[in-house]
Amino acid sequence: MKLHEYQAKELFSRYGLPIPEGRLAKTPEKAMEHVGRKGFPIAIKAQVHAGGRGKTGGVLIASNMDDAYKAVHSIHGMTLISPQTGERGATVTKLLLEKGIDITRELYLSILPDPSTTSLLIIASAEGGMDIEEVAATQPEKIIQIQVDPRMGIQTYQGRRIAFALGLTRELCVPFLTLLTGLYQAVVENDLLLAEINPLVLTTDGEFCLLDAKAEVDSNALFRQKALAALYDSSEDDPLEREARKHGLNYIRLHGNIGTIVNGAGLAMASMDIIQQAGAEPANFLDVGAGPTKV
């Protein structure tokens, strides 16, 4: 289950991670009220479960009331289309308004489970603010990866190794280690499949701040993460996926034209492999559950 940016930031802030001063608005009128209180510059940010918002007009910076008015009314209600949303796009009904901050550096930091090594993988890069996939493809030497044994937890030497690889000064190592430890605790205690900060910025005052944040909760752990489960936003789901969930079905829309109805996830995956090997594309993943009854 994905969290919105404002939800992820609120969660991370409970672990001592610094976030910009901001407010959520669900209408343009409320957004403009917040603009009047925050001052300028101010960032107006679409709240949808998709990356690449800045590249598609979903994040704008305003330096006066006229710019803010245009930005708010441009973003609220728009259909934001990015690689994550597909052609259907996502309708923006919520805005996050954040006070502008002066930035000197942008970094990348994330933590996610690595099933292949049964560890938690920390990924960091000095190239924050960019698509991490692009950095990995074109400048792999700038990607830092550290595996953490969950039985031991993150160790100080691992944090120092990341800090020095990012080119941080000795004075910044302590606050960075505090931030990294807090992020790690957030992942472990909340059953997160992903915690990503991109960018993690260093301000002109020499302080770290989470300019953007993503979090994804393991849906299989929601039974023990009831507070996070309550944050679920069904409006972000594909309508067919939302309807399937009501009936206890595992359905994921894909981009092909051959539909599948299969009992058991393994057979469903095998069926999609066969379709692709034949040169076609599956239209969906649909697991109706194992143990079907006779008809």
Explained architecture:
The strands form four sheets. Strands 1, 8, 9, 10, 11, 12 and 13 form a seven-stranded antiparallel sheet that branches. 29% of the residues are buried. 32% of the residues lie in helices and 26% in strands. The chain starts with a strand and ends in an 8-residue tail after the last strand. By secondary structure, the chain is of the alpha+beta class. It has three domains: 79 residues, ATP-grasp fold, A domain (Dna Ligase, domain 1, 2-Layer Sandwich); 123 residues, D-amino Acid Aminotransferase, Chain A, domain 1; 51 residues, no CATH class. The longest helix has 20 residues. It is built from nine helices and 15 strands. Strand 8 and strand 9 form a beta hairpin.
